[in-house]
Design brief:
This protein has about 100 residues and is mainly alpha-helical. Helix content is about 50%, strand content about 0%. It starts with a helix and ends in a 33-residue tail after the last helix. About 30% of the residues are buried.
Length: about 100
């Protein structure tokens, strides 16, 4: 599953775009420097997200939308279309 696919699945499950979840995380005081544990606990408690999907959001909350270009355009099962994740909803993603 690509990194972007994780975020799209989170949106489907929660009804919130990744950007909306980042904003909620910021409101809770989460951001750069926050350890994964508290963010994962919040995502599990409030949105019933498991560790894998939660870790995708932890990355975005703590490091922003840029990802490694290791799988960009690789065509594999983990391939992403861009090294910048789309946070504004799957339906508006220009990389699809």
């Amino acid at each position: 599953m690509s990194f972007q696919a994780y975020l799209d699945t989170i949106e489907t499950k929660t009804g919130l775009t990744p950007r909306q979840l980042v904003e909620k995380a910021t409101d809770r005081g989460f951001g750069p420097g926050t350890k994964a544990g508290p963010i994962l606990a919040w995502l599990k408690e409030d949105y019933d997200l498991g560790r894998g999907h939660g870790m995708a959001l932890v990355h975005v909350i703590t490091k922003g939308p840029k990802i490694s270009d290791k799988h960009v355009g690789s065509g594999g099962s983990h391939a992403d279309a861009s090294d910048t994740l789309w946070l504004d909803g799957a339906a508006t993603n220009p990389n699809r």
